[in-house]
Structure formats: structure tokens, C-alpha cells
Specification:
The complex is a heterodimer of chains A (112) and B (114). Chain A contains no helices and 10 strands. With 112 residues, chain A is an all-beta fold. In chain B, strand 5 and strand 6 form a beta hairpin. The chains are: A mainly beta (112), B mainly beta (114).
Chain lengths: 112, 114
């Protein structure tokens, strides 16, 4: 079946540095992508989204980049803070459906 | 309420028992989603509702799983004859509509089947 970011890597970054979290997706028909942050014991929290007709979108301290040619999505967090420590999930939606496929996530650890 | 709420927060049950999980979406949100998250895994889509109808039930793992939504608000996910592999966190999310794509999640119900 389709897959999004099946591995759960861990990214460790120093406080204040920039973080880049990557996600590979396999469905070229996906038209919408979301990044979520999940802290321990909580539900996922919406961070930022991007439609397939865009290649970059910026939010507060976060930027999402979409490369449809290689089916790659990334989340950049500027000036990473301890509160950014969490598991980050990417999710994709296929055009014509309302089902979202989530990856297994990346754990971000911020080192003081 | 301010966000999506789910109850119970934790549920321990014995194999073979039925369980009901409840989701209260954000007021005014017409779309509602159920997901399952196993330990260390991503979210597995189960079902979504637009209003009271569920156009897509393909994510339900087996016929032991069912969900309903009444009055366009509260939804209940029922698991009959629970099995140990049903142990997971069950997450509910809502959005303003299917076309309003950002989903807001509840804290989840942690289900443990002994």
C-alpha cells in the first residue's frame, strides 16, 4: 500500500540551532500535506500545512518545503527550543479522498 | 468546549468484552475522524464522518469495530469482543468540514486489553 515515512528516526539538536525533519511520501496523487507535533501523552497538534500547488510555506518559526519531483516533504524549525521536543508526523491526503496517511514520525530531542 | 474531548482517558478491559469510546468534537465542526495509534507507530485511519454519515469505513480493521455519530456532534467508537491486538491509543479529530483540512485532535483514549 501507500506509505509515508515508515521509519521513526531520532533527531538530536542543540538548543538554538535549526532543525530539519524529513518525510518521504509515495503517492504522487497526494494533494495536501500536514505536519503535526505530538508530545508525550497528548494528541497530535497541527503545526503547518501545504497544498501540492505550492513548494514552500512559512509559519511562525517553521517552514515546510515540498519537492514533488522526489516526493519529499520537510519541516524546518528555526532556533529550536526545549519545548519543541516531541514526535513530529507528516501526513498526506490523496486527491478525491478525505483519508489521511500518517508516517510513523520523527522524534526530536533538543539538547540544552 | 475549547477543544476535542475524549472519554474515558484510559480503559482496561478483559479480552472478549465490548468497549465504547466517546468523542466530543469542537462545537461547529462537521467533520470527525477516528484514528488508532499503536505504541511507537503513526496514526492509522479508521473512519471519518461528515455530519452523521460515514462515507468511508474502509479503515475499520474488522467487523468488530463500528462507529456512529448522532446529531452531527458526539461520536462513539465501539469495539466488540476485544482482542489483545486492539490495545492502542484511539484518537479522535474534528475539522470545520471535509474541505477545511486542518484537523484538531483530542487527547485520546488509551485502551489496554488483558
Amino acid at each position: 500500500g501507500e506509505s509515508v515515512g515508515l521509519h521513526l528516526p531520532t533527531l538530536s539538536v542543540q538548543e538554538g540551532d535549526n532543525s530539519i525533519i524529513n518525510c518521504a511520501y509515495s503517492n504522487s496523487a497526494s494533494d495536501y500535506f500536514i505536519w503535526y507535533k505530538q508530545e508525550s501523552g497528548k494528541g497530535p497538534q497541527f503545526i503547518i500545512d501545504i497544498r501540492s500547488n505550492m513548494d514552500k510555506r512559512q509559519g511562525q518559526r517553521v517552514t515546510v518545503l515540498l519537492n514533488k519531483t522526489v516526493k519529499h516533504l520537510s519541516l524546518q524549525i528555526a532556533a529550536t527550543q526545549p519545548g519543541d521536543s516531541a514526535v513530529y508526523f507528516c501526513a498526506e491526503k490523496t486527491s478525491g479522498t478525505y483519508k489521511y496517511i500518517f508516517g510513523t514520525g520523527t522524534r526530536l530531542k533538543v539538547l540544552a | 468546549g475549547a477543544g476535542v474531548s475524549q472519554s474515558p482517558s484510559n480503559k482496561v478491559t478483559e479480552k472478549g468484552k465490548d468497549v465504547e469510546l466517546r468523542c466530543d468534537p469542537i462545537s461547529g465542526h462537521t467533520a470527525l475522524y477516528w484514528y488508532r495509534q499503536s505504541l511507537g507507530q503513526g496514526l492509522e485511519f479508521l473512519i471519518y464522518f461528515q455530519g452523521n454519515s460515514a462515507p468511508d469505513k474502509s479503515g475499520l480493521p474488522s467487523d468488530r469495530f463500528s462507529a456512529e455519530r448522532t446529531g452531527g456532534s458526539v461520536s462513539t467508537l465501539t469495539i466488540q469482543r476485544t482482542q489483545q491486538e486492539d490495545s492502542a491509543v484511539y484518537l479522535c479529530a474534528s475539522s470545520k468540514g471535509l474541505a477545511a483540512l486542518a484537523q484538531y485532535f483530542g487527547p485520546g483514549t488509551r485502551l489496554l486489553v488483558l
